[in-house]
Amino acid sequence: MPDVPDLLSRKSTLVMGILNATDDSFSADGFGDDVEALVRRGVEMERDGADILDVGAAS
Question: Stretch 28-57: mean pLDDT, rounded?
Answer without folding.
Answer: 87
